[in-house]
Amino acid sequence: MSAPGAGPPAIALSRLSKSYGRLEAVRDVSLDVRQGEIFGFLGLNGAGKTTTIRVLLDLLRPSAGTAAVFGFDCQRQSRQARARIGYLPGELGLYPDMTGEDVLAVLARLGGTPVRSAWRDELLERLELAPADLGRRVRDYSTGMKRKLGIVQALQADPPLLLLDEPTEGLDPLVQRALNELLFELRRRGRTVFMSSHVLSEVERVCDRIAVIRQGQVALVSTVAEVRRLGGRTVHVHLAVEADAIALPAGMSFVERSATRWQIRVAGEVGPLLPLLAGLPVRDLEIVEPALEDVLRSFYRAEPA
Amino acid sequence: MTRTWVLLGATVRRHRILIAGACALLFAFQVLLILVARGLEQSGGFAQLDALIPEFVRQTFNVVTPTFGGGVSFAYSHPVVLVALIALALTLGTEPAGEVESKFVDLLMARPVSRGSVVDRSAAALVGATGVAVGTMLLGTRLGLMLLAPPGAPIPRAAVILSLAANLALEVLAWGGIALVLGSLARRRAAAAGAAGLLTLAMFLLDLLGRLWEPTRQLSRISPFHYFSPFRMIAGGLISGRDAAVLGAIAVAGFVVARIGYARRDL
């Protein structure tokens, strides 16, 4: 298996646009997803996440620009590109009169890549989908069971690229955790995961890098760690007795200040703050990393440049 | 090709009850009509029926003197048979729209399946189901005649029955081709099937009008029903090469347009 980042990008979008009449669902999106990484594609509903994924699958034809998977153009070499993809749609369209077993069998045969039964059984076990459930018709499945079946069909052929649209929607916390562990394992084996989500805590736990799409345009591409840095950390200072406020250096500001409790937002390193606190009656000090959600909220809502 | 077969297998499994039900209905209908024709033959009812047919109907539809053989042959143009077979064709022809509507197409197209395979699958299902249904009708006719034909009654020639069956099958396939075009371009199956159904009714009425009213005769040539001439065959003729060619051409053109349209559209 190739090392992470080696070879052509798992996904390469170049100035990709997709319009429906006058509505521009995706506008001039350029993005590379490296092989072997877990990439989060974030945005509000209607931001253009699913449209972008559907262009990768050649379900939608771009109005301008190109999309490629492992170097294969998603429109001109669509079948080669799709042969390398496992896809979990956000809205799973299953025929209710088919059994879970039928769904997996038909989709495996259409995929063309042999499915290792040991791997499929492992997936079923880890996602807690019992063999007896596979014999039931899909109409009798709960939302969570359908989701699990969707994940198994996407992963069963062990494809090099996974496109997961809101993968944990409808899953209970234990299965969510099992799925996250599965994704980590796949990354270790060199697989690439491109997942769209609006559950930021999940993205924070799982993804190496993220892109934020807003009104059809990419507003941010970054590692999760960098995004957190963008938000700055918060230093909570607990004083034993009331003290006079201090003059903060550049890049720092008070978020909240009461008699004995200060909250200071620090963009960058905390070091310059420590000498200033040294002369104060500090009882306790706590440095809090920002939640991804807090940082991304501004990217979600701000007007594009 | 392999993927087309996989898709075809899934389609047949999904529609097996519909196809089997239509075949059972058509088989039973053939036997029933033979039973009715036997009753009329034995009671002298055909002569009474002949006296009841108005002259203009006789001329407009080329109706010949009713006989047992004619009654048996009539089963291949009976409205119940036409409606059942065309409904089956519209259902199968609009499956691509159903897959888009249900989003099952997302799962199909996430595999290295060509868009052409989806249309090929539906065309193959149409041809197969039409063949099986019309074949079942022929079987019903054969068994019905063996078991129920009154001694000495005039039995239609095999060539006539086969011509009627071929004309009927081509008519159904022409409508299947039209349904395939609509099904390949629509996002909702009900919209495609509804439009195809309305078009079928409109074309049926246009053909009827063309037969009844001289000024509309030329226009009625655009109706696929114009090329379905059962009464001429019931009178002993064989399928017209022109009719077969036109209906076959409509079916093939529908398939080609559907393939092109489906390949170019957003799913």
Strand content of chain B: under 5%
Structural class of chain B: mainly alpha
How many alpha or pi helices of chain B?
A: 12
What is the tally of beta strands of chain A?
Answer: 14
Low-pLDDT stretches of chain B are: none
Tell me how many strands of chain B there are: 0
Work out the strand percent of chain A.
25-35%
Largest sheet of chain A, described in full? 6 strands, mixed
Low-confidence stretches of chain A: none
Give the strand order of the largest sheet of chain A, numbering strands 1, 2, ... along the chain.
6-7-8-3-9-10
CATH architecture label name of the largest domain in chain A = 3-Layer(aba) Sandwich
Q: Which two chains touch over the largest interface? A: A-B, 31 and 24 residues
Order of helices and strands of chain B: HHHHHHHHHHHH
Shape of chain A: elongated
Q: Provide the CATH topology of the largest domain in chain A.
A: Rossmann fold
CATH level 4 superfamily of the largest domain in chain A: P-loop containing nucleotide triphosphate hydrolases
- Decide which structural class fits the backbone of chain A: alpha/beta
Q: Give, in order, the helices and strands of chain A.
A: EEEHEEHEHHHHEHEHEEHEEEHEH
Percent of residues in helices of chain A comes to: 25-40%
